[in-house]
Amino acid sequence: MSHTQMYSRVLASDPAWNGRFFMGVLTTGIYCLPSCGARKPRPENVRFFPSCDAARAAGLRPCLKCHPDDFARGADPVLESIEALVAEVRGGPGRFRDAGAVVRRSGFGATRCFELLRLHYHATPADLLLRAKVDASRRLLVSGSLPLADVADEAGFAALSSFHEHFKSFTGMTPSDYRTLGLEGSFRVGLPPGYPLAHLLRILGRDPQSATERLSGRTYETSADLDGLPAVLRMEFSNEDVTVSVEAEEALEAQHRVAAHRLVAGILGLEQDADAFTRLARRLGLARLVSGRHGLRLVGTPSVLDGLFWSIIGQQINLPFACALKRRLIENTGIRLSGGLYCIPTAAAVAGLEPSDMRPWQYSRQKAEYLIGAARLMAAGELDLGALPRMSATRAERTLLAVRGLGPWSVNYLMMRSLGFADCVPLGDTGVTSGLQTLFRLEERPDVDATRRLMSVFSPHRSLATAHLWQINQPPP
């Protein structure tokens, strides 16, 4: 690459070039990764190096912001320290009085702690602590019979009223209703005020011939793996709430009901801060982005495996053809449930295929190899999808990018829709680029670098920005 080409990657803060070259800034005596978030130097002050050793030999020292030496040797002590902090908060949120206690425990200054948690977990210290408290209270409610006041206290809530308010916001249920989850055969999940139900139903019904889900009026059904139990989950919508019921060949245990609720909450996007994104869009003078869709959320996939298969199948083809390919895979390798729906095939079922087996289903050889390769990694225990949601966004992204066939679009799509990360952009997505062209009144659709720059204003809510951009050129449902 020429100096100009490498400098363009630095201006774009492109992480794809980290490790392929290193940037030395002669005026400061520091060398960095191309993606370093520090202020960009002038091109005449920059020299590029093939390795950290070459940069040090030129008399430069490593950047304390991006830690290029750690990246080069595969270590990341700053990330590891943040991951240890998050594990401690999640393991005992009651030990942290407030967000300030999280910052103090981190060992970093307040600004640096905020920056690192935003980068690696797409969350502020307060967000992280609140989610940990809600998760802890969920575990306490289903695993014992503590009085609600004791549950709130042990989870770290300062007041019972605060416990009720936040728990219902994240789960759509009161703590007492959650404790008796599904004991009467069904349960109700409340919708947030102003929830754009029509948009959700349009998304859920986008493939009328789907083998795994179907929408009839306001009733949605999907196959589901509820903690190892194949089942059909039914959601009946009203304007205020959703009535959820589950059909399975075996009796439902508590863990199956908890899994069903978590799946419903993910589909509805209850944990996403739609109000904060609306405020951000208006503050930026871009209220037209959220007009008519103020409470819009990203619709979660029924499982991480479903999201992974779709992120490979949906690459670089149109939606109807992608739906047809997915349907053929499922009908040939999945398990048929009562009522006609199919379960998503297991990793083992897909791992046993050969690319030639998928040719009659109109899969290209490359797409078939990507699907089978990912499935074989899972079947061999080398790719643990169940561990991804608990990882940092950075660790999850690195894990997924190491899988052949998963690029930046696929990984960010999967992280948004299946793992619930709040600040992702599926770079190269035509829906995003078309939406940006409309929103900013551009003469042509932006390329990857321009997309990255334009989307940066929506951080730390770029996943929700993506959801709105996908809708901006669609007629109201």
What is the spatial order of strands in the main beta sheet? Answer: 5-9-8-7-6
| CATH topology call of the largest domain | Endonuclease III, domain 1
CATH superfamily of the largest domain: Hypothetical protein, domain 2
Share in helix: 40-55%
Polypeptide structure, described:
- By secondary structure, this protein is of the alpha+beta class.
- It folds into 5 domains: 3-72, DNA Methylphosphotriester Repair Domain (3-Layer(aba) Sandwich); 77-128, no CATH class; 134-192 and 214-271, Orthogonal Bundle (Arc Repressor Mutant, subunit A); 272-299 and 420-477, Endonuclease Iii, domain 2; 301-418, Endonuclease III, domain 1.
- The strands form 2 sheets. The protein has a 5-stranded antiparallel sheet with strand order 5-9-8-7-6.
- A hairpin with a 4-residue loop joins strand 1 and strand 2.
- The longest helix is centred in the N-terminal third of the chain and has 19 residues, at 125-143.
- It has 23 helices and 9 strands.
- It starts with a helix and ends in a 5-residue tail after the last helix.
- The relative contact order is 0.08.
